UniProtKB/TrEMBL annotation:
Organism this protein belongs to: Nocardioides dubius
Domain of life: Bacteria
Protein's name according to its UniProt entry: Metallopeptidase family protein
InterPro entries associated with the record: Zincin_1 (IPR010428), Zincin_1_sf (IPR038555)
Amino acid sequence: MIEIEPARFEAMVAEALDGLPDEFGSLMSNVAVVVEHGADRPGLLGLYQGIPLTRRTTHYAGVLPDRITIYRQAICRICNTEADVVDQVRRTVVHEVGHHFGIGDARLRELGW
């Protein structure tokens, strides 16, 4: 387990988002990415809540933004070095963004995410 300061962890999440291919970033719509620094959900590194792009219809309007939550303590708990945290943050961000694009857990695992 390693402890990463909240500001540094948030920077890692921002770097992971900035590292997404431009075409993904430009397609992300109505989604907020937040970091949860306090209590986490056991076994959960990140969580996507919302309506995936693949399920949005012409009736999609006036809804709150989708939410991607990245759990700092959960990620730090399974990592030993800062480099491990950077890698796991990147993997978690990509995984949750995948859900925003409608990709399920099984397919994300097949893809290595």
